């Protein structure tokens, strides 16, 4: 994201990146690997979650929502790969550019919000079980929450839908997609500040803090009154979720804020680093199936059956049914 409104302001670092074939090849290779793992892992996950897992608890509903966003990203990445391999030359028109950019960023922020929702659901099931049991409308609340997430993210990203995100660079003979944003996308610097604040602090930092609180509380609760198998699985789930935040989401959002501030106020750029961080943000779609494995007993059992692995022993099954019923759905 550059925030440029004219070719004369296109910085040298961005121009150099467009001519760096080695960087575009590395990015394309990463996207290829992510695409394969994404489509295979999430294709299997959506089949298990939709057709083989019952009942559809709130956690399962949130996981289905997360899987759908991941599959949308996996379907969009081949277009990004083609764009990179053609030397940042977009040939599919402005509307397709806007749509695929929207898919890209919707995946990121819907994933962040959905993982927060899964964390809250587990927190209520383990730390506040009485409140959890009394709520008879949990499924409806989960569905409404998913719809609100999509509404919030699409509302914030609305400028991407209404702006021509392509940008022609005559001196290089290419037309970029989203790599050069026009200042005119938003009416003022204040609007840009509000846009970036919402992305970084409302859609990333706040959910991160809530998710961290939920999982730390869950681990603390289980460490005092639960057996090792439940505590170990909860810790592994918390580690996977926090790794996704730390590796996939944090660098991208921090660099987004830093780069945008530098471009808007100091005419400097960190675009190369930001571009590379976008690759790592896509890795979340490969790690999400691990979240399902540790968060859902049904998902684990169905996956083991498909992979022809031994199911849990009868003693473990009884223990899980007694201990995990409130929070493993």
TrEMBL record:
Keywords: Cell membrane, Disulfide bond, G-protein coupled receptor, Glycoprotein, Membrane, Receptor, Transducer, Transmembrane, Transmembrane helix. It is a multi-pass membrane protein. It is found in: Cell membrane. SUPFAM superfamilies: Family A G protein-coupled receptor-like. The keyword Cell membrane applies. The chain crosses the membrane at residues 26-48, 60-79, 99-120, 141-161, 189-222, 234-252, 272-295. This is P2Y receptor family member 8. Pfam families: 7tm_1 (PF00001). GO terms for biological process: blood coagulation; phospholipase C-activating G protein-coupled receptor signaling pathway; positive regulation of Rho protein signal transduction. One of its GO terms (cellular component) is plasma membrane. It comes from Fundulus heteroclitus (Killifish). Disulfide bonds join 97-177. Gene3D superfamilies: Rhodopsin 7-helix transmembrane proteins (1.20.1070.10). GO terms for molecular function: thrombin-activated receptor activity. Residues 41-292 form the G-protein coupled receptors family 1 profile domain. Belongs to the G-protein coupled receptor 1 family. InterPro entries: GPCR_Rhodpsn, GPCR_Rhodpsn_7TM, Protea_act_rcpt.
């Amino acid at each position: 994201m550059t925030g440029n409104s004219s070719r004369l302001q296109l910085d040298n670092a961005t121009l150099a990146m467009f001519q760096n074939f080695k960087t575009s090849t590395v990015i394309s290779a990463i996207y290829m690997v992510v695409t394969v793992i994404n489509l295979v892992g999430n294709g299997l996950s959506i089949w298990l979650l939709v057709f083989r897992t019952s009942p559809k608890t709130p956690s399962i509903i949130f996981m289905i929502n997360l899987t759908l966003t991941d599959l949308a990203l996996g379907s969009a990445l081949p277009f990004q790969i083609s764009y990179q391999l053609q030397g940042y030359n977009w040939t599919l028109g402005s509307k397709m550019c806007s749509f695929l950019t929207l898919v890209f960023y919707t995946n990121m922020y819907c994933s962040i919000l959905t993982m927060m929702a899964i964390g809250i659901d587990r927190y209520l099931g383990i730390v506040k079980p009485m409140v959890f049991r009394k709520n008879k409308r949990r499924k409806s609340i989960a569905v409404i929450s998913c719809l609100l997430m999509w509404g919030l993210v699409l509302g914030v990203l609305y400028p991407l839908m209404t702006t021509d995100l392509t940008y022609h660079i005559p001196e290089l003979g290419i037309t970029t997609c989203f790599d050069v944003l026009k200042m005119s996308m938003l009416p003022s610097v204040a609007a840009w500040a509000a846009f970036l604040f919402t992305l970084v602090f409302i859609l990333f930092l706040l959910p991160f803090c809530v998710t961290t609180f939920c999982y730390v509380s869950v681990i603390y609760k289980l460490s005092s009154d639960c057996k090792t198998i439940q505590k170990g699985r909860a810790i592994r789930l918390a580690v996977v979720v926090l790794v996704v935040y730390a590796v996939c989401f944090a660098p991208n959002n921090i660099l987004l804020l830093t780069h945008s501030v530098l471009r808007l106020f100091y005419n400097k750029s960190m675009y190369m680093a930001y571009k590379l961080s976008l690759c790592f943000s896509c890795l979340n779609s490969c790690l999400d199936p691990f979240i399902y494995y540790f968060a859902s007993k049904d998902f684990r059992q169905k996956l083991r059956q498909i992979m022809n692995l031994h199911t849990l022993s009868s003693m473990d099954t009884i223990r899980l049914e007694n201990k995990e019923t409130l929070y493993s759905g």
